[in-house]
Design a protein that fits this description.
heterodimer; A: alpha/beta; Rossmann fold; D-amino Acid Aminotransferase, Chain A, domain 1; 2 domains; four-stranded antiparallel beta sheet; B: alpha+beta
């Protein structure tokens, strides 16, 4: 089973689900964050010999360590299912901590694995991305942050007068769109590797001279604008990893 | 130059500061409660990070700092902000200051005790347990479930069980007793973490860079930190020796988790096995040092003072 985990309002997640169903013989299951959080039965084990999960959803489906072969993980946060309870904050923290551990023990390829800085991969501050991107050979603008700024410490980067943007997605070793200049694609690939984010979206702004300036990155990018070639790549990536696991 | 950030009277911070004084190390204290007379700004251009910290009229180049200790409390609860409405200029300034300070310390090439990002693994105990296991430690068998029947099966398999929070909130360890079993149905509302009870001696290993200090906690309490509450007698803390091999594994574990300073909770069984339960990224070491005399604060001070560059 390939698993798509996302919010019901996540257009990219739902689009990937339909796209993968057309491209795979493997069953593809869409599980929303709400269904996951409100599962009928959780069984999660961690021990010296390994970890496992077995989750029974309200609609009768089961997610287990035995039936999942790959996951597109777009879980952003735990839904507010404890609203009105005096223990709302505590219960939400507990459920978030549980999901982090569950997602970490999913077998096969997980795009992306959870981190303490994000359930679907590490969300970094723009200051961190700026430093990492520069180190990967991508052009960056000066980043400034001040506690004295009139807007109370909001960071600032000068993008110049251009409003031409370019988005890219790194998926393992693949970079979309494939038409991206080779040098830029190499930098994207390196940034994904350095940031330990196998599925990474990047944004660039074009300078007046035609160069591309790094403008930000996300572990949960928009898939739809990457088009059908991205879905082909996603199916290949999940499929090839499955073969590696089987081998 | 070293930057200490926090509340000066907080015991661990005060102890480290005292050791820095004894060493004659140069340091600057950012007292959070003085936020109205404090400012920071920084700029990242390429791989250069530079800026200025202003504390009570004095200015410091951020590039001067080669060691940073952050033991800050949540700025929204600072006494000086009591009665301040949401969005007041004082609250906004305090937030902007702490946010900028944190962002800079995450990127600074200085030695930082500890950076914020690696401290996050402790937020989810079973997640951290999986990271600990990957470093080769034995970990206790753990079950998280909302199914009472599974808990009973787990108990039949492992005997005595403990239960505790999954997250770092309200994390007091308790034994699963008959009274708890009577109300086990309640877990259907919120999955709960159960763990096999491991017989043996609790040992806390503080690691500071490559240094380590092992302390045994002798008590019959399930959670030795709350021994006074659980048994009426506080735990007896004793400095103990552990093998160089185990110490090296502890140092390696802290390093793998990205923690310059860590408190690692072990259980040493009578059979000679070692179980690791948890790694605390912000250990309240003063409790151990004041009971055993182990020079932990001195080691932290030495670590902060001893480098000009980020450790590997």
């Amino acid at each position: 089973m390939w698993l798509i985990l996302c919010s019901p309002y996540d257009q990219s997640g739902v689009w990937a689900y339909h796209g993968l169903k057309l491209r795979s013989r493997e069953p593809v299951e869409l599980v929303t964050t709400e269904m996951l959080a409100c599962a009928v039965r959780f069984e999660h084990r961690v021990g010296t010999d390994g970890s496992s999960l077995n989750i029974e959803l309200a609609d009768g489906r089961t997610i287990s360590s035995r039936n999942v072969k790959g996951t597109v993980n777009r879980v952003l946060q735990v839904p507010d299912i404890f609203a009105g309870s005096p223990d709302r904050d505590y219960a939400t923290q507990e459920l978030t901590a549980l999901l982090m551990s569950l997602l970490y023990c999913l077998p096969g390829l997980v795009l992306n694995p959870p981190t303490p800085q994000g359930l679907s991969g590490r969300w970094r501050h723009p200051s961190e991305w700026a430093v990492l991107a520069h180190g990967c050979g991508l052009a960056t603008r000066t980043y400034s942050q001040s506690s004295r700024s009139p807007d109370n410490g909001v960071y600032w980067q000068n993008w110049g007068s251009s409003n031409r943007m370019q988005s890219a997605i790194v998926l393992g070793h693949r970079v979309f769109p494939r038409s991206l200049p080779a040098g830029l694609a190499d930098g994207c690939r390196t940034l994904a590797a350095v940031s330990e984010t196998p599925l990474l979206g990047l944004d660039f702004v074009q300078t007046d001279e035609g160069g591309w300036i790094f403008a930000g990155a996300s572990p949960c990018p928009d898939f739809v604008s990457a088009g059908e070639e991205f879905l082909d790549g996603l199916a290949e990536e999940l499929g090839s990893n499955q073969k590696e696991v089987a081998a | 130059m070293i930057l200490l950030a926090g509340i000066p009277s907080e015991s661990p911070l005060a102890m480290i500061r005292e050791k820095l004084d004894e060493m004659g190390a140069r340091y600057v204290m950012f007292n959070q409660r003085s936020f109205p007379v404090s400012d920071i700004d920084f700029e990242i251009a390429g791989n250069n990070i530079r800026g200025t910290l202003r504390l009570n009229g004095s200015s410091y180049d951020l590039e001067e700092f080669t060691g940073i200790l952050t033991r800050t409390m949540d700025d929204q609860f600072l006494p000086e902000l009591r009665g301040e409405p949401e969005g007041s200029p004082a609250r906004l300034h305090a937030r902007a200051l702490h946010e900028a300070l944190m962002r800079w310390s995450e990127l600074s090439p200085a030695r930082v005790v500890n950076r914020a990002a690696p401290m996050g693994s402790n937020f989810s105990k079973p997640y951290q347990l999986q990271l600990i296991r990957k470093q080769g430690f034995q970990v206790p068998e753990t079950l998280i479930t909302n199914d009472p029947e599974l808990v009973l099966q787990f108990k039949a398999q492992h005997g005595k069980l403990i239960y505790k929070s999954i997250s770092g909130v309200r994390s007091i360890v308790s034994t699963l007793d008959d009274e708890d079993l009577d109300r086990l149905e309640l877990i259907r509302w919120c999955p709960t973490q159960f763990q096999q009870f491991i017989e043996g001696t609790n040992v806390r290993v503080h690691t500071v860079g490559d240094e380590w200090f092992a302390t045994a906690a002798n008590t019959t309490a399930i959670d030795y930190r709350y021994a006074g509450r659980q048994t009426g007698e506080p735990a007896e803390l004793v400095a103990v020796k552990i093998s160089d091999h185990l110490a090296g594994r502890c140092v390696g574990l802290a390093r793998a988790l990205g923690l310059a300073f860590a408190g690692i909770d072990l259980k040493l069984t009578p059979e000679g096995e070692v179980y690791c339960f948890e790694v605390n990224p912000s250990p309240a070491f003063s409790y151990y040092e004041s009971n055993t005399g182990q020079p932990i604060a001195e080691a932290v001070a030495r670590y902060l003072a001893g480098a000009e560059a980020r450790p590997e």
